Amino acid sequence: METSGARNITSNNKKQLEMNNETLEKMKQLRLFGMYDAFRTNLESSVKESLTTDQFISVLVASEWDDRRNRSVERTIRAAAFRYKASLEHIDYSIERGLDRNQVHRLAALDFIKEHKDLFITGSTGTGKSYLATALGYQACQNGYKVLYVNTAKLMGQLKLAKAKGTILAELKKIERVDLLILDDFGLQPFDPQSRVTLLDIIEDRHQKRSTIVTSQIPVKEWYDIIGEKTIADAVLDRIVHHSIRVELFGESMRRRNSKIENVFL
């Protein structure tokens, strides 16, 4: 026979369960997904019982904070449109190619972005220029900076289409707003008159306000000839060369080297 006390306990447990389910549903509707996961996990594991009210609230808020930050970083990475994933932790320093670990660590602090400085990474094909630039881009995304990765030639082509459609000003404004612009494979194709002017517009908009990473197989001293047209080349290089940070890589292509190693073990 069920006692009055037992009925009260059952009734209280039922009310508590209903209240918790209602709270979970409200969290979901409010898009408090971090809190939702933490609250549900604590209910299932009974960890909540060992926490004070203050501690439990702290757990919920911290979970929501982490969840929102992680989702923000994911959105920033998607918007950056990287060609592939890269990580500073996975950079190989064992191969002699002019890559200084201390310099990379200093760049990883992202002070050059805070100071609105530009970074040039030059070297022969396959030496890891794009990988280093992309890894720094990922680091910037994880620290809350807006990043855009583009192949230089493709960007110029896209902006030509935008000019024809009458939307180039809007596109240039988007480029101007990103904290870090990565211009990959700079100079692989010559700049025609329209591309030169567009390049100057991009550099002028970002000069001393935002940072740009440029990767190129062409040494910086030869960029003048790549850009062409004396007046525009002077204007572009005057704005980006003098206060830039430079990383110059050399040596055999990493892709070719890795291919040789793979063939040895076939």
From TrEMBL:
Entry-linked Pfam families: IstB_IS21 (PF01695)
Lineage, highest ranks first: Bacteria, Pseudomonadati, Bacteroidota, Sphingobacteriia, Sphingobacteriales
Family of the protein in this entry: Belongs to the IS21/IS1162 putative ATP-binding protein family.
NCBIfam families linked to this entry: IS21_help_AAA
Keyword tags: ATP-binding, Nucleotide-binding
Organism: Pedobacter mendelii
GO terms of molecular function: ATP binding
Domain AAA+ ATPase: 115-248
Name this polypeptide is given: ATP-binding protein
InterPro entries per UniProt: AAA+_ATPase, DNAC/IstB-like, IstB, IstB_ATP-bd, P-loop_NTPase
